[in-house]
Write a sequence for this structure.
């Protein structure tokens, strides 16, 4: 069976930590930084559980600040 | 040709891209004439009856922001509604032509002639520090000529030009000489002449944005200084005034629009009686012809301002001569127009018989 | 598989549309405006209309849309965007002209301009963000504010006797002969975002085909104005807004 590997890259500078991507992710890949903040004081999103990412782009679609890029590899 | 019809024909001949307006007496013939002439079939000019003066002026704003040659016309109550767009256009530095064929106010007032929108036209009208060039025709020929002059000046200075006519000039019929038909500007010509215009990012040029909003106080202050610099330039270059018999006059009548024509007759009658009376007719009300009036008034004993208003232009006349001479007002109101002998009587009463 | 094997240009399946520039958007975290901006940019890009698109921005939070989407823009006085779009489209029929308006702009001060542009069948698209509140001015009551909803100008909740009813304007616009497509969408889930994107695409295509006016209402959140965190605002929207403003096509002339 084909295995799907995904990954997201968050533009941490642009992210406002709204948490909508975290909620939208079906695989619970994302989280907001607990302590670290960007230049404007936002706890930005990051992959806390990268292995679970399937590259479905849900996070990117709902992101209001267009700060998520999604990568996807289908291993046959 | 009727004054209002002349405006419509002159706009087509200039190569106008669009007219947006809303019917209101006494200038509805502008829109009616355009609809009857169907310029969209010949020059491609857009003619649209909007849902209100507010919508119409904002259509003009958009057309001007696109670098197009656009105009609207209205009468006093409608012009009040258009002040929103006037202010935005001034702030965005876009060229447009506005026409106000004045009727008597305040309120719904009367449909008959007036000049009571002088303050509104010349002193701002809308919010913020701005001016529009205000041209005051006193003949149907000038209705034609000032359409072209208005647009030329608007595009030269990226500002709003206004034709401020009274209802008499809008409604009266005279012979006119019309200019040749000019072609409308092509999109290429507009891109060249108005590189700032919203025309789409052809060849992915940097985007153009027409906005009046600027929340950075220093930039907004600088914008205002730039507007003012333009206004000073306009004041320097564009004041226009007709002077008649002012070389030797003891008394000066100052009047614009149709009262200037009636005052001319009163002046002639006074001269027949042996009084040396002259006439100054401001053609640009803003910028006001300060120097010309001051020069004409140098040796006079008194000035009579004749207006279809309670005395609005008189303030600018007093300022022009720095209150160095007696300045009196005579005017009819409520849509009434004075006869020449009424003006002559006023001259006698206020100056000659004193 | 290692991350550095996955994160390679050839594996990229989603990125920010280029037309959405790098300027930081001033919107609050989680604001629906950002999603809709992104969709507008994506659709213009996918249609290849970058050189022909002209947006008209409103007064309200989206006034600065022109700072983010890299096309030519006109900035309208409050409510007048449909009048400005009318002129731009009539003067340049080959351009893609759209307005982007909030509920106060479209359904209060600009009701006349909106209805008449739609009624004239102007070949423009109206993108209407309905979040039932005035965001930019600090959370005052909008024409679309729900009964009982608290805002800065109905602090005890909107009451019929004091404030009248919430205005559902899309059904009014759908009644007009000049509209060809009136739809109501939202952007709170992936599926809804995709549907909204398809709606914007359809609306823009209608405008270029000359079918009349298209209206895409996006029922949205204003989490700051509603005083909720973004995900709770989405929940509140689903629970409260959709009853008054149900999603779906109200009119689709082609069908």
């Amino acid at each position: 069976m084909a295995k799907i590997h995904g990954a997201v890259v968050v533009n941490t500078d642009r992210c406002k930590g709204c948490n909508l991507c975290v909620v939208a992710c079906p695989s619970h890949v994302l989280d907001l930084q607990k302590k670290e903040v960007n230049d404007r004081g936002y706890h930005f999103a990051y992959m806390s559980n990268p292995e679970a990412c399937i590259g479905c782009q849900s996070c990117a679609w709902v992101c209001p600040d267009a700060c998520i890029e999604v990568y996807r590899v289908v291993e046959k | 040709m009727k004054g209002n019809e002349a405006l419509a024909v002159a706009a087509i001949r200039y190569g106008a891209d669009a007219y947006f307006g809303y019917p209101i007496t006494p200038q509805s013939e502008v829109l009616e004439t355009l609809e009857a002439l169907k310029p969209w079939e010949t020059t491609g000019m857009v003619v649209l009856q909007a849902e209100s003066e507010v919508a119409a002026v904002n259509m003009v704003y958009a057309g001007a922001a696109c670098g197009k040659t656009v105009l609207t016309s209205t009468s006093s109550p409608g012009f009040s509604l258009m002040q929103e767009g006037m202010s935005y256009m001034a702030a965005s530095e876009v060229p447009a032509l506005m026409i106000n064929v004045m009727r008597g106010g305040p309120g719904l007032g009367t449909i008959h002639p007036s000049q009571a929108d002088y303050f509104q036209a010349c002193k701002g009208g809308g919010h913020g520090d701005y001016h529009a060039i205000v041209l005051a025709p006193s003949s149907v020929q000038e209705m034609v000529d000032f359409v072209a002059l208005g647009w030329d000046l608007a595009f030269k200075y990226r500002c709003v030009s206004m034709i401020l006519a009274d209802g008499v000039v809008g409604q009266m019929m005279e012979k006119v000489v019309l200019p040749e038909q000019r072609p409308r500007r092509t999109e290429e010509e507009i891109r060249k002449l108005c590189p700032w215009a919203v025309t789409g990012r052809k060849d992915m040029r940097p985007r153009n944005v027409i906005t009046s909003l600027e929340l950075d106080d220093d930039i907004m202050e600088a914008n205002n200084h730039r507007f003012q610099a333009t206004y000073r330039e306009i004041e320097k270059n564009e004041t226009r005034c007709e002077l008649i018999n002012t070389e030797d006059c003891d008394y000066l009548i100052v009047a614009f629009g149709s009262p200037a024509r009636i005052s001319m007759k009163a002046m002639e009658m006074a001269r027949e009686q042996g009084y040396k009376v002259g006439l100054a007719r401001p053609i640009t009300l803003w910028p006001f012809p300060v120097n010309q009036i001051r020069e004409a008034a140098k040796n006079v004993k008194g000035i009579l301002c004749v207006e279809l208003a309670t005395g609005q232009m008189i303030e600018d006349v007093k300022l022009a001569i720095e209150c160095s001479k007696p300045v009196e007002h005579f005017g009819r109101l409520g849509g009434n127009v004075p006869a020449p002998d009424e003006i002559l009587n006023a001259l006698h009463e206020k100056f000659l018989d004193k | 598989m290692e991350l550095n094997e996955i994160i390679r240009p050839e594996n990229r399946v989603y990125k920010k549309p280029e037309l959405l520039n790098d300027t930081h958007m001033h919107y609050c975290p989680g604001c629906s405006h950002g999603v809709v901006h992104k969709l507008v940019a994506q659709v213009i890009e996918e249609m290849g209309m970058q050189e022909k698109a002209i947006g008209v921005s409103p007064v309200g939070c989206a006034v600065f849309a022109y700072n983010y989407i890299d096309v030519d823009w006109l900035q309208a006085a409050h409510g007048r965007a449909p009048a400005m779009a009318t002129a731009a489209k009539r003067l340049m029929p080959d351009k893609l002209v759209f307005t982007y308006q909030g509920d106060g702009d479209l359904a209060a001060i600009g009701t006349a301009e909106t209805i008449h542009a739609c009624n004239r069948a102007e070949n423009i698209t109206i993108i209407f963000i309905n979040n039932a509140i005035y965001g930019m001015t600090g959370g005052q009551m909008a024409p679309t504010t729900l009964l009982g909803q608290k805002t800065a100008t109905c602090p005890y909740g909107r009451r019929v006797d004091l404030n009248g009813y919430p205005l559902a304007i899309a059904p009014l616009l759908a009644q007009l002969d000049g509209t060809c497509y009136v739809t109501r969408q939202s952007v709170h889930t992936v599926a809804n975002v995709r549907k909204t994107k398809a709606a914007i695409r359809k609306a823009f295509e209608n405008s270029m085909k000359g079918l009349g006016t298209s209206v895409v209402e996006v029922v949205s959140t204003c989490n700051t104005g509603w005083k909720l965190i973004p995900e709770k605002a989405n929940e509140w929207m689903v629970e409260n807004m959709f009853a008054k403003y149900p999603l779906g096509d109200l009119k689709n002339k082609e069908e």
User: Anything to note?
Assistant: The longest strand of chain C covers residues 179-186. The mean pLDDT of chain C is 97. Residues 107 and 143 of chain C are 6 Å apart (CA to CA).
